[in-house]
């Protein structure tokens, strides 16, 4: 595995200057910002991520105001009371994306958020306080306790809300293979631990957030 010095030099060469490189790198939110985000916004973004999966994002985003209305502004205390009959009625609403499995995930994730609120005070506290040195642990927690948050949905949701995370996209997986960190897409606990360890090392060497290292690494593969 190459060190951060190589990664930085490669990206500088690719983008031509430090200014160009910095301009394309994402910035994570602070713990205070993550903690301040209301639970209804977390439920909205979880749901948005789930409905975006497999669909054109612009199509889903254009319909989202109707979702906000149909799901009471994603207030988890209201959404959790939505029963099967209410969800069946939403299947007749042409303003929405009528996918029953995804619609059912919304009240289930409302219950998840309320459970976390009871234990942590707010969902934002869980997200803010989780150490990025074990971000794959947060992926697993979200996938286990939430609904339809497996695969890349958990890391993509975290990127949407601004929590620092890497995302094992096809390009990043190819780059990690080239670095000898893994030999296939990381789905096993062993491979996820290896990827986390590699990013932790690069973070110590660079002081950069995981999201920036993730994007930089993805750009080391040929297109």
Keywords:
Endonuclease III, domain 1, 2 domains, 14 helices
Question: Helix and strand layout, with pairings?
Answer:
Blueprint: H1 4-15, H2 18-23, H3 31-36, H4 39-52, H5 57-70, H6 76-79, H7 84-90, H8 100-120, H9 123-129, H10 135-145, H11 153-161, H12 170-178, H13 189-206, H14 210-218
Number of strands: 0
Briefly note the structural class of the backbone: mainly alpha
CATH structural architecture of the largest domain: Orthogonal Bundle
Question: CATH first level of the largest domain: which class?
Answer: Mainly Alpha
Number of helices: 14
Structure, explained:
The structure is a single chain. The chain folds into two domains: 78 residues, no CATH class; 119 residues, Hypothetical protein, domain 2 (Endonuclease III, domain 1). With 223 residues, it is mostly helical. α4 packs across α5, α4 crosses α11 and α12 packs across α14. It is elongated. The chain starts with a helix and ends in a 5-residue tail after the last helix. It is built from 14 helices and no strands.
Short description:
This protein is mainly alpha-helical and 223 residues long. It has 14 helices and no strands.
């Amino acid at each position: 595995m190459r060190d951060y010095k190589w990664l930085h030099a490669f990206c500088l060469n690719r983008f031509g200057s430090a200014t160009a490189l910095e301009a394309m790198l994402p910035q994570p939110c602070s713990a205070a910002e993550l903690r301040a985000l209301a639970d209804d916004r977390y439920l909205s973004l979880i749901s948005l991520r789930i409905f975006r999966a497999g669909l054109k994002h612009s199509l889903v985003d254009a319909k989202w105001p109707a979702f906000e209305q149909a799901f009471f502004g994603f207030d988890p205390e209201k959404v959790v009371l939505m029963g099967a009959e209410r969800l069946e009625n939403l299947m007749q609403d042409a303003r929405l994306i009528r996918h029953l499995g995804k619609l059912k995930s919304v009240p289930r994730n409302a219950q998840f958020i309320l459970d976390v609120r009871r234990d942590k005070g707010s969902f934002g506290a869980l997200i803010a306080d989780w150490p990025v040195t074990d971000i794959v642990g947060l992926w697993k927690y979200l996938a286990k306790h939430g609904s339809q948050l497996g695969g890349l949905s958990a890391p993509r949701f975290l990127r949407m809300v601004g929590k620092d995370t890497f995302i094992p996209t096809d390009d990043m997986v190819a780059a990690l293979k080239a670095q000898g960190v893994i030999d296939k897409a990381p789905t096993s606990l062993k491979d996820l631990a290896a990827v986390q360890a590699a990013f932790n090392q690069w973070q110590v060497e660079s002081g950069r957030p995981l999201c920036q290292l993730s994007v930089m690494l993805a750009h080391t593969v040929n297109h």
